Fold:
Amino acid sequence: MKKKIGLLYGGKSAEHKVSMQTALAVTKAINYDKFEIHPIYITEEGQWIKGMQLTGPAENLKALEFTPQASALPAPAFNPAIFAGEENLDVIFPLLHGPNGEDGTVQGMLELLNLPYVGNGVLASAAGMDKVMMKNIFSQADLPQVSYVSFIRSEWEKAEEETYKQIEVYIGYPAFVKPANLGSSVGISKCTNRAELVIAFKEAFQFDRKIIVEQGVVAREIEIGVLGNDEAECSVVGEIVPKKAFYDYKAKYEDGNTALIIPADLTSDQYETIQRLAIRAYKALDCSGLVRADFFLTSEGEFLINEVNTMPGFTPFSMFPLLWKHTGVEYPQLIERLVELAIERHEEKQKIKYTF
Structure:
């Protein structure tokens, strides 16, 4: 019997377009002899629309976009009945990036509906999205990382000068200013002086009410994929070599102005170290399914964890699938493995006793 997959994509997020690219890639690669694909599109306004079953690879984004039906009354953003019907979906595959999808909100809804779903649960998704909470947890897990401070918008608005001085005293330049709850390098700026810092704060606060400022470090950017539930395994290691100041949204998704080196040139000891740190981070956040763990490797040979991405870029040309391809797991196989892990985790949860 074919597994019925509810493909959830789009989303009310600045990363809507990234999600669309991911959905297109998955629908092109998935094995239709093993899976039925039932698309569920979330518009940029947050409306959920269920499409017709896909019987073969989608050729372009238009095949995955649906227009809301005109109505005298506004349609609800979400109705649980969208998962009901003849399909009896076996697994939901959320291909959502950023807030309202990768941050635990959708995961919590799927938990309430008791539906199996691919990827991380509520806690790992929420903590992995919030860079401040994630780094606080990493600190408790004794994972080495760069110095950082965080601010909420109201604090900054009341005391701009004090905010900038605090950064200059405790972080210094260069510094990276980032929205706390966003991925794909959206809203991130590198600052080398006060003027750039002021502009960066205004930019980052457009995308979140909380931001994080991290100490800049001269280091190689090293990434590794992690796959599994309670027992996790690591991929080979990759390195990002951007040809500009840092690996921003445009370099990732538009101009390709970045070199991805797989496998990265590491010693066997370094490889063992990054595996150990990646698994420690995975367990610290109670992750499941998948993450991409990102590290800095300093000239002194020290690994500093930057972040984990609980729903990493997932096109065939994204780092996470490429890492697994070089490990021996092709893109269609990776999709199948994630579905298997989702079912495995769901079955494990059904053993929990809810009565006393």
